[in-house]
Amino acid sequence: MRTPLAALLILSATAAAASDLTLALPDGTPVQQVKASYTCPAGAQLTVAYITAGDSALAIVPVDGKPLIFANVLAASGARYAAGAYVWWTKGPDAALYDLRQGEGAPPVMTCQEKK
């Protein structure tokens, strides 16, 4: 039997209308959600939801006003998440959004600091 993971992946943090995504997980899979708030350039505020389900980790990051679901990928340090052409990389209170279409070694398109 599987346990549904519903409403944990609520994509309404930045969207005008809420949407739900339901994933089926094996029974007994521990699930945790943590939200972090960031201050970005020009005083922009960003809220990111981090979801851990067993050995899998996701981040829901608003990009251009739309929530994208990022999956955790290998990182030399910090936590690195990827969604399509984007990478969200955090290390301590620092976070950066990269657009891989800008080329290898390109600077981040946005840097943010977590608010405590």
Work out the number of β strands: 10
CATH structural architecture: Beta Barrel
Q: How many structural domains can be distinguished in the coordinates?
A: 1
Structural class computed from helices and strand pairing? mainly beta
* CATH domain topology: Lipocalin
N-to-C terminal Cα separation, in Å?
39 Å
Low-confidence stretches: 1-17
Helix content: under 10%
The description of the largest β-sheet is: 8 strands, antiparallel, barrel
| Number of distinct helices | 0
Question: Which class in CATH terms?
Answer: Mainly Beta
Q: What shape does the CA trace take?
A: globular
> What is the radius of gyration computed over CA atoms, rounded to a whole number of angstroms?
15 Å
Strand order of the main beta sheet, please?
3-4-5-6-7-8-9-10
What proportion strand?
A: over 45%
What's the average pLDDT? 86
Order of helices and strands: EEEEEEEEEE
CATH superfamily placement = C-type lysozyme inhibitor
